[in-house]
Amino acid sequence: MPIAIINDTCIHYRTDGDRRLPALVLSNSLGTDLSMWQAQVDDLAAHYYLVRYDTRGHGLSASLPGPYSIAQLGADVVALLDHLDIGQAHFCGLSMGGVTGQWLGLHAARRIGKLVLANTAARVGTADGWQARAAAVRAQGLGPIADSAAQRWFTPQFVQRQPAVADAMANRLRGQNYEGYAACCDALAGADMRGEIHAITAPTLIIAGTADPVTTVADAEAMRSAIPGARLAALPASHISSVEAPAAFTRVLLEFLA
Fold this sequence. Notes:
Number of helices: 12
Distance between the termini: 30 Å
Oligomer: single chain
């Protein structure tokens, strides 16, 4: 179980593929862990040195008391690259991971090759909404959030077709550290990139889910308009498109990176 001791915390990560290939970092969404990318691993690792990690507060990474900030989450990625002696990497983040990616594109541009922002927005939700969720999780735990997770993450058709997948991801959320989750809600409460992302210079692909109620196609269009030269791919999926439409997600990712 590889652990990087960085920025006064412990970050769990996994690598796949040939170390001599270009590096690609995958960053998970709120309430998940690096296993959310499992459907992409074999195809991506054939072309890239693949680095997956659990965002602080998630999975097997440490869950120090919050609040966290998006700057902290981004700095963890930079420190992980340093730990692995990677000078520059492509980066793909989904939802919260996509907000981290925007920070990296703005504040660590020389470390990022191409940037993929999936099912995310320059401003995800509202500060009040995230603060209320953080307070509820600290008071009640993650049970109520996990009970409704599949409705936010997937279309009803996917849940009907793949109930075991939806249940497994909801149960994984149920087992997360509630303080780590809440601390990442605090980070999202303070994250608003709308006035900044025009300064991103990395070649950027934005992936949206046509049925995503959390970060909509309109959110993706706004990002595409703001980031110079950005491309947009819309997939038939809800919020976690890498799981609901894995083959299409992998295809558009590989086409863009190539």
